[in-house]
Amino acid sequence: MTQLRIRTTLTLLLLMAFSTATVAQDSHCQLGIGEDEASTPSDEFELPRDGTVIHVRTDLQWAQCALGQGWSRDSCTGQAESMTWSEAQTAIDELNRTGELGGYTDWRLPTREELETIVEKCREAPAINDDIFPDTPWAGFWTSSLDTEEEGDAWFIGFYYGLTLEYSRDSSYRVRPVRYR
């Protein structure tokens, strides 16, 4: 009887240890939302501590905050700016002119495919790893990708559910700059 209790206790301890390790690895996931494992685990990112983050899997360097927000220690402060697609292009040009983000001058709007690589499929509201990209608005973020069927439309990703949609370039969405590392 004692051996059975010891075996049962050991089995429970092992299960608890395994469960804890899994939860710790995907701590930004939400139970019952989307996939069981993180699609953007934190260990795929390097944090230079200059307001940028490097996605090692894709070799892309992202602004940790949306344009309009500022990086402060471990969070994004201020309000993410909404802008039309054309205004987004101008804002990126200004960012490059000043070199204020990490000292780099080759930032751009991400392609649709690039922005999809940071959508987190195990959470929503926002559907992004908020340990890596804190204070991300749920609203849409522009891509550089244009809709070939609808003249005047561009693709954006809404970070409430992580959906990719196209809409008029005269609409207002947020911007998260990217560059190749």
From TrEMBL:
Residue span(s) of domain Lcl C-terminal: 51-179
Protein name: Lcl C-terminal domain-containing protein
Origin species: Wenzhouxiangella marina
